[in-house]
């Protein structure tokens, strides 16, 4: 029965199309290779502009290091590519990365929707390359030549780098350590695919929204794999829920790497779910988890434990474990967060900046409301002519109906004084569940953090996107418009 349950789970994963096809894999490999060629040309150009001697120009190099789900081999057909650009000592982030390289990327026919997020903890460029979304941060090493597959765990390359570069490198370093520490890579990858699907379906995935990100789930999955090296996939999933539903938070989760552990950083152990990065005994995963989102995560761990207790019963169905979270049935009121800007370029930068500060907005709403559940999906208000993005965050059931969102909006906008450029517009309002966009996502939950397409549509010619049966967020065409004015946009 144990083996049968593992086989049925693998069949479930296949039905959900969690694994990309050979053609999709090849497309991503080509994108990474093209990006490597671009940054190599970029670094030669920067070296020449800076008057570097010809001999050093010939030796100078830069590279691209994939990480995240793609780097771990657990990406899906619609997953983004997280790729770190690593450059030498003379290539700066402010001028050479965000200006010279960005202009080179803009000139490429494969690149579209490029935006900079400069004020985040890990500054990056975000764009689409041949239709695939790419997040590209930058790290500057104090060397001239960067090997294509530079060893980011080698102290030689890590010496004297700045704090921002260190943070940018942490994802790549964590990936490499995880892959070295798991006892069975195939089992780990299958388990992590399942765990990520569960987190997305149950609405507890998305670091910017106060939930767990990819690196958090990867380390939790690797921890279970280390504790149960010979377990089947079925047993790994059930042990995952049992372990973390009963975990004595805020005790940190740490992978075993044969190193002696020192006292944990006091700031991180005060966080709700501290998870130590495997590449350093002093570093923890960056977390935006708040009181509300910690409650939701714990609740979902406990639900998973309850659901998988009957995993060996004949009538057990994996689909029930991954059933989407029913937002519109669970909550009666939502905060509508409306973000807009005069044009698409400004909107992309503005939305990126606001999202990087969502934790601040979430804690503000918690102060006046007590509980807030951020729904990690973007919408577009089609009634508005200006480019816009809309979010809906659920409020505590049974709480006083009055929420002074105007005060919250004013306090949050006060922090936009540090925004580089002209800030866009932000409006908060309270809507009832009956006023949510007419979309099954709210009734059945969502399994993909979609991105808004930010297109301005002529209201006379606006169309309703028709989504694929197999990919609920993939547009296959458009139907004639009706009275519904707000739609979910597809993501990369």
Automatic annotation (TrEMBL):
Residues annotated for Mg(2+) 1 binding in this entry: 80, 82
Annotated binding of Mg(2+) 2, by residue: 80, 82, 135
Poly(A) polymerase nucleotidyltransferase domain segment(s): 2-182
Superkingdom, taxonomy of origin: Eukaryota
Catalytic reaction list: RNA(n) + ATP = RNA(n)-3'-adenine ribonucleotide + diphosphate
GO biological process, one term: RNA 3'-end processing
GO cellular component: nucleus
Protein name: Poly(A) polymerase
Organism: Quillaja saponaria (Soap bark tree)
Lineage of origin: Eukaryota, Viridiplantae, Streptophyta, Embryophyta, Tracheophyta
